[in-house]
């Protein structure tokens, strides 16, 4: 039945700065490194374009979101 499906959910109706980045990005290390700076991204995509959410921790302290 072609009508028995869920439609696309509209996204990005809010400013990116209102996102709580700590809830959106996994902080699990893929590679175990001894580097003092770690950068995490959420790998998001919207409308076939790459998102830009990131989070930087320096010496285990949040320095940029």
TrEMBL record:
Q: Which domain of life is it from?
A: Eukaryota
Which protein is depicted? RNase H type-1 domain-containing protein
The organism encoding this protein is: Araneus ventricosus (Orbweaver spider)
Supply the source organism's classification: Eukaryota, Metazoa, Ecdysozoa, Arthropoda, Chelicerata
């Amino acid at each position: 039945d072609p009508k028995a499906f869920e439609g696309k959910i509209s996204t990005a109706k809010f400013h990116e700065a209102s996102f709580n980045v700590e809830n959106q990005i996994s902080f699990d290390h893929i590679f175990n490194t001894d580097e003092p700076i770690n950068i995490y991204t959420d790998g998001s995509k919207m409308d076939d374009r790459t998102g830009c959410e990131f989070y930087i921790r320096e010496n285990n302290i949040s320095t940029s979101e």
